[in-house]
Structure formats: C-alpha cells, structure tokens
UniProtKB/TrEMBL annotation:
EC number: 1.7.3.3
Active site annotation, chain numbering: K11 (charge relay system), T58 (charge relay system), H255 (charge relay system)
Organism encoding this protein: Massariosphaeria phaeospora
Protein name per UniProt: Uricase
UniProt entry keywords in alphabetical sequence: Oxidoreductase, Peroxisome, Purine metabolism
Record bears the keyword Oxidoreductase: yes
PANTHER family: URICASE
Main localization (coarse): other
Binding site for urate: T58, D59, F160, R177, V226, Q227, N253
Pathway membership, UniProt: Purine metabolism; urate degradation; (S)-allantoin from urate: step 1/3
Length: 300
C-alpha cells in the first residue's frame, strides 16, 4: 500500500556552551550554540517494522555532541559541524549521511573602564551566525555559512526610481528614502573531502569579511534599489573568499511610510521636510538572489 519515501531523525535544540580559560592571562573566551543533528541511512525498518536495533537514539546523539565538544574546538562552528557529521558517518556503518545545523549566539566581551573585561560578556543584538552542513558517506562535507537577523537602517543614501509603471502602479518615485532590512546572507563553500581539509580554512575570517562587506556596502552605497545593493555585496564576498562558490542574500525591505501632517496647522512633514515616519510591520518587500562565479552553473 505505502512506502517510506523520506526519513531523517535526530536531536534538535541541543544547547551548548564552552569556555576556554587561558591560565596565564586569566582571559576567558565563551561560545554558545544551538545544535541540530539529523541522521539518514538504513533506518527504514525502525519506521516500517518497529525495529529499534537500527536506531542510534537521539539521546545518544546529544551525548555525542557534548563529548565531541569536550574533545574538539567548537569554534569555528563550520569545523565543529564537520567533526559531528563525520563522527556519525564513520562510527555507524548503516548511517550514510549527517545533517548538522549550528546556530552561534552572540556573547560580546564587555568593556569596563575602557578595557576589555576578562570574563564578562553581553548579548549585543539578536544577530546569529549559522552553519548548515551535510556529511555524506563517500561524498565528503558540504558547508554553508550564514548571517541571520542582522537588523540595519540608513536614514538617507537610498533611492528607488525608474521602475516599471502601468495602470497598477501607485508608488511614487523617490530619490531619497529610508532603507532598512534584516540581513540574511549565506555563502556556500566548495565541497571538502575530509575534516582535515576543513580544519585548514579560516572560517572566522570569512565570516568577518562577509559581515564587514555587508555593513560597509549597506552604509556607503548610493543605493539604486535593494537588488543593486545586494548584488554589489555578493560580488565583493566572492572576490574576498576564494573558497566560496556562491553567495546568497534574502533582504526584506522594511518600509517606513511618510505621514502627511498638513491637516494640522499646515505642518510640513513630506518630501524633504519629512522627519516623523510610520515604520511598517507588514507587508514588506522581499528581495532574494544567489550570485555564483562566472561560468558556474546558475541555480535560480
Ligand atoms: O529596492 C526596491 N526594490 C523593489 O523591487 C521595490 N519595490 C518597491 O515597491 N519598492 C522597492 N524597493
């Protein structure tokens, strides 16, 4: 009658914290992550025949995550994802693929009296660093890194004019508008054969470069549109990180509407006189793109 056509299982929302304590200087470095592990393989009978002998319990997966975190660096998260993924594929002959997602939360070192504090940190926003990995038996490790939930706004330096007009168009052209978005930026790495190969890569430098390029381009570009600005960002990340094959952005356009206040004693609050705006929750524009190197296959 029926057949199992998709099966993955594992542990989600494994919360993990690791501290590195430098004995000489007394400086602590902390990392907090949320890990998801999903396994694939010859596990059909656990669904179709109640055969638990093929099940590496999700609790075992969680315990393994803690042990691997004790035995290995968990920063950069790309490297830890590869370590976890490879462990399951190499340890269990019937497990053929591991999908690992790691969300790294921000703990930024406090500055007290102008000096970096050795062991105190604060959460400076909701921005997260994300890694998605797939380790497949015989096929190596594929990695995608992401920045998510980085909220930015510029109060000028953005225009939107010259767009298609017809009988459905009401939006006026603008040469000066507010631009705000919550950045979701991803970069896909060339595939790696082994964990040793992954360990050679400076993922933290790439994350820093992608973040710096995103912020600098957002701030300094005379934006003709979200589309044009995000393409410039993608292009620069591809140039800065040679091991990256593809860069993608998904940028919501978080609108700020002008409010006409001339009904009140002729108050001027539109065009160049606009200072009070109404931030909109929804609907919002949503602009997406993937940019690859010339000659690479497009995946639109
Ligand atoms: O940068 C923009 N891109 C669009 O496609 C668009 N559409 C729209 O209404 N406003 C904007 N802004």
């Amino acid at each position: 009658m029926s057949q199992l056509s998709y099966a993955r299982y594992g542990k989600d929302n494994i919360r993990l914290y690791k501290v590195d304590k430098d004995e000489k200087t007394g400086i602590h470095t902390v990392i907090e992550q949320t890990v998801c592990i999903l396994l694939e393989g010859d596990i059909e009978t656990s669904y179709t025949k109640a055969d638990n002998s093929v099940v590496v319990a999700t609790d075992t997966q969680k315990q393994t995550c803690y042990i691997l975190a004790k035995q290995n660096p968990i920063n950069p998260p790309e490297q830890f994802a590869a370590v976890i993924g490879t462990h399951f594929v190499e340890t269990y002959p019937h497990i053929h693929a591991t999908h690992v997602k790691i969300i790294q939360h921000r703990w930024t070192r406090m500055e007290i009296d102008g000096k970096p504090h050795p062991h105190s940190f604060f959460r400076d926003g909701e921005e997260i660093r994300v890694v998605e990995s797939v380790t497949r038996e015989g096929e190596g490790i594929s990695l995608r890194s992401k920045i998510e939930k980085l909220l930015v706004l510029k109060s000028t330096g953005s225009a939107f004019h010259g767009f298609h007009r017809d009988e459905y168009t009401q939006l006026p052209e603008t040469w000066d508008r507010i631009l705000s978005t919550e950045v979701e930026a991803g970069w896909r790495w060339k595939s790696f054969k082994t964990v040793a190969e992954v360990k050679e890569v400076d993922f933290n430098a790439a994350w820093q470069a992608a973040r710096d390029i995103t912020l600098k381009t957002f701030a300094t570009d005379s934006s003709a549109s979200v589309q044009a600005t995000m393409y410039k960002m993608s292009d620069q990340i591809l140039a800065a990180v040679p091991l990256v094959d593809a860069v993608d952005y998904a940028l919501p356009n978080k609108h700020y509407f002008e409010i006409d206040l001339k009904w009140h004693k002729g108050l001027k609050n539109t065009g160049k006189d606009a200072t009070v705006f109404a931030p909109q929750s929804n609907p919002n524009g949503l602009i997406q793109c993937t940019v690859t190197r010339k000659g690479a296959k497009a995946r639109l």
